[in-house]
Specification:
Structural class: alpha/beta
Low-confidence stretches: 1-51
Helix content: 25-40%
Bound molecules: zinc ion
Shape: elongated
Strand content: 5-15%
Number of domains: 2
Distance between the termini: 36 Å
Mean pLDDT: 77
Number of helices: 8
Radius of gyration: 18 Å
Strand order of the largest sheet: 2-1-3-4
Length: about 210
């Protein structure tokens, strides 16, 4: 299924379609959806050095860092299986992505100068610090606008429809503290702002301020 990246108007439409008999404050929902897209830029791609929205191909060794990049709203895919170095850099060029890796042997490829960033370590904070030294990464670009599992853009869904199925099995938290509720149509997963998401958000804010913890 192909998913079109949502604009602010799409998020507003999602909340506007909620039924009026909702037991959840419409105002609270609107506030949550606006917060969800705060920091989203609607401009097109800029130059390599100045862009705040990146298309990345992240080495298999750096999966946790890839999830944080997705949490920040960046397009960060991880190859499904181990690929040869040559195929990795070829894929980055073909898809116009920046390859993020700790493997310095990749620098021997001619296209490495424009499509490779070498980073230090495998811990997400170390990778983030290293990556920020090479690219102008906006760690608050569009928080939680992408699926952490598969990288696809998520959509805000009606909590009246989806929240009950979550509370039956996973959490007793009131929906207000978990909004916005989003769904990935690609891998059929639901995402809410629970404690884990809040800790990731705090980490992104710290990274945005230059403190890589
Ligand atoms: Zn997904």
């Amino acid at each position: 299924m192909r998913i079109v990246e949502p604009l602010i108007s799409d998020f507003n439409d999602a909340s506007a379609s909620l039924p009026t008999r909702s037991t959840i404050s419409r105002r609270a929902l609107m506030g949550a959806t606006v917060a969800a897209v705060a920091g989203t830029t609607l401009t097109g791609r800029a130059s390599f050095a100045m862009t705040t929205k990146h298309r990345l191909l992240v080495d298999n060794m750096l999966v946790r860092a890839a999830r944080m990049l997705r949490a920040a709203g960046h397009d960060a895919i991880v190859p499904a299986s181990q690929m040869s170095r040559a195929k990795l850099i070829q894929r980055a060029v073909r898809e116009d992505r920046i390859l993020v890796s700790g493997d310095d042997s990749l620098s021997r490829f001619d296209t490495a100068q424009t499509h490779l960033v070498l980073v230090d370590g495998t811990d997400p904070a170390d990778v983030a610090a290293s990556l920020s030294g090479h690219l102008s990464i906006d760690w608050l670009h569009a928080p939680f606008s992408r699926c952490l599992n598969c990288n696809h853009v998520v959509e805000i869904v009606d909590p009246l429809v989806w929240w009950p199925s979550i509370t039956e099995v996973r959490t007793s938290a009131p929906v207000e503290v978990a909004l916005p509720l989003t769904r990935c149509a690609n891998c059929d997963s639901l995402h809410w702002r629970g404690g884990h998401a809040q800790r990731m958000q705090a980490r992104l804010q710290s990274w945005s301020a230059g403190r890589f913890i």
